[in-house]
Amino acid sequence: MDVLRPTLININGRLYRKNAVKEQTYQNDEEEEFSYSENSLCTDEPCDSLQIEQTDKGYRCAIDVPSVLYKYIIGKKGETKKRLETETRTSINIPKQGVEGEIVITGQQRSSVISACTRIELLVESFRKKQPFTHFLSFALNEPHIQKQFLKFKEEVLSKCSQDNGIDGSIFQNPAKLHLTIGTLALLNEKEVRKACDLLQVCKDEFIKDITGVKPLPITVGGIEYMNDDPAMVDVLYAQVQAQDGSAKHQIIADQLLERFVASGLMTKEWDRVKLHATVMNTIFRKDPTAEDKGPTGLVRQERESFDARNVLKMFERYHFGDLDLNAVHLSQRYSTDISGYYTSSGFITFS
User: Among 13, 67, 171, 198, which has the highest number of CB atoms less than 10 A from its own CB?
Assistant: First the structure.
């Protein structure tokens, strides 16, 4: 690690340094440990997000933690929890697994309770990043005429390019789920889903209305492009999207949504701006037709069989999928389907 540029962890707007340590490897992820630096802890005054209460028996603080993360605070055979209690001279009460609630820390000394709370927050933030994403913000592109053109594209590609290496029907997108991904989120309980929905509404009121003029955004879906450097070994082929008036309003909305959701802690920033793309062919579908890529980086933790896209790119470079009006942003659930065939929406906002 570069000591001048240490890894930083952002928790509720506060930055903590993660020290470089030799990590131990366990068989199960719930047995992993997270190291923290005493220098990164609050010792005198509580951090802004901590509500320290004075009681007859000392001090108390309650932290809202999704139940799926309890195991990381408990640790292997309860060792992490015991160590935290011993080192901070506190008592940590954790709800039963699967029961949503608050983790309550009590102790004789205010500084001890603060230290235990901060260490737990660091553990939670570290292991939260390892959770698979559950939702994503999306622009739906599954209008009937777009789906019809997509199916025509699929038919023509299979007719003309099926002899090319790796091309078969399994790698095409489900036409009912054509979309643009704005960003992915790991929402671990209903409270976090509600928080994301509320933030989406705030974004509409604070900047989306001004950008759209409270009207849909006419766009064109047309032209195809690939993600990586070699067109002979492609994993993702996508349709491009342009605003019909030559503006970049859809891109501006996507970028500002990313910034707001990252600042809230609900989303992790993995690139400087959103690369809006409508996936039409993806090798991840070969093994899992319901899979959803994390984004334009195409990072998928499994082996993929690439395909030769050179002829597809040559023949369909300017393929026109159609025009439509973007009129909503959805908080879409991963691995789900609604009655229209699109992803089930946990919440949405409209432009008009």
Answer: 171
DSSP string, 89-144: TEEEE-PPTT--EEEEEEESSHHHHHHHHHHHHHHHHHHHTTSPP-EEEEEE---H
DSSP conformational letter for 155: H
Strand-pair category, 236-243 with 217-226 = antiparallel
Closest listed residue to residue 226, CA positions, set 165, 147, 302, 308: 308
What's the token pair of residue 120? 């737990």
pLDDT in tens, 209-257: 999 999 999 999 999 999 888 999 999 999 999 999 999 999 999 999 9
Copy the structure tokens of residue 292: 């959803």
In 3D space, the residue among 318, 316, 282 whose CA is nearest the CA of residue 159 turns out to be 316
Phi and psi for 111 in degrees, rounded to 5?
Answer: -65, -30
Mean pLDDT computed over 56-67: 91
Cβ atoms within 10 Å of 3's Cβ, excluding its own: 6
Give the predicted TM-score (pTM) of the model: 0.80
